[in-house]
Amino acid sequence: MKTIRIFDHAGEFAENKDVARNLRTTLLLPELNKGKPIVLDFDGVDSTTQSFIHALISDVIRKLGSDVLDRISFKNCSITVQKIIGIVTDYVQEGA
Predict the structure, then answer these.
(1) Residue 2 φ then ψ, to 5°
(2) Which of 45, 47, 55, 62 sits most deeply, having the most CB atoms within 10 A of its CB?
(3) How many independent structural domains does the chain possess?
């Protein structure tokens, strides 16, 4: 199981959509396309923007279906990060 430490790429405030898109295309999608589970570790990330999370996971859900969320673990999320992930995943699944 691969772990992506968001802090290592985005710092304590994850806001850069280009960073999120790069994580999605180079690390997240390749593992998920192989059927492997992945951990998104938010340790050290105090907050994030909705656009960062959207750029990170929305295309993944659209391409692979909402069942892909069973293979993505969100670890060490602050309450704020948890809420934003919930908003984005709900929104994307409603549109699917």
Answers:
(1) -85, 140
(2) 45
(3) 1
Report DSSP state, residue 5. Answer: E
Q: Which domain holds residue 10?
A: 2-95
Whether residue 87 contacts residue 58, with contact meaning beta carbons closer than 8 Å, is answered with no
- Residue 91, classed as helix, strand or coil, is helix
Chain centroid, CA 94 distance in Å: 17
Q: Which two tokens stand for residue 37?
A: 């589970």
Token pair, residue 76, equals 């060490």
Sequential DSSP letters for 19-76: HHHHHIIIIIHHHHHTT--EEEE-TT--EE-HHHHIIIIIHHHHHH-GGGGGGEEEES
pLDDT tens per residue across span 35-85: 999 999 999 999 999 999 999 999 999 999 999 999 999 999 999 999 999
Please give the pLDDT value at position 18.
98
Contact by Cβ (8 Å): 63, 27:
no
